[in-house]
Design brief:
175 residues; Rossmann fold; four-stranded mixed sheet; globular
């Protein structure tokens, strides 16, 4: 783990209005439970490969075994891992892995809680590309780059959140 890259990653996330909590490896479930309780999350979607130790108490956990769009829309949030992260841009890279889940799981609910381990943080895109390219070539997996919560602006530059993905992004950074 490169401490400078992790610090830059956190700074970029915070500049994008992303909440970041540093947690010890065994405290993911407790940290996720705090986030869910603070936001009134009752139904939390998770990918099938998410570690059981990460599942928070207090929310009904719904495993995404090909949930329909209506079922995904009924979720209050999603908890996923990621494939890697890019410090320079504060970007999460989700490549449909066992802890990342399907693209729609991280895009449809209004809240996305993403667990990122410090060793997953690459300094920049060129450093991350060999791993990303390998996933695309070997598994043909779709890759999603997430840089903050979904936001766009209209022609008058009025910011609108949640149009193309979750309104809120929370990163739990494992130290």
């Amino acid at each position: 783990m490169n401490a400078a890259s992790v610090d830059l990653f956190v700074a970029r996330l915070e500049a994008q209005k992303t909440e970041v909590s540093r947690v010890e490896g065994g405290d993911v479930a407790a940290a996720a439970a705090v986030v869910c309780a603070a936001r009134g999350v009752r139904r939390l979607g998770v990918p099938p490969g998410l570690p059981a130790a990460w599942l928070p108490a207090g929310a009904s956990v719904v495993v995404d075994h090909d949930l329909t769009p209506a079922e995904l829309d009924a979720l209050d949030g999603a908890l996923t891992g990621c494939t890697l992260a890019i410090a320079e841009t504060g970007t999460l890279v989700l490549a449909a892995g066992s802890t990342d889940g399907r693209r729609v799981l991280s895009l449809v609910p209004d809240l996305h809680i993403c667990v990122v381990a410090g060793h997953q943080v690459e300094p920049d895109l060129p450093a991350a590309m060999p791993r990303i390219a390998g996933l695309i070539r070997a598994a043909g997996r779709p890759v999603v780059f997430v840089s903050g919560a979904s936001a766009t602006s209209d022609i008058e530059l009025h910011r609108v959140e949640g149009v193309h993905g979750p309104r809120q992004l929370v990163v739990l950074l494992l130290s």
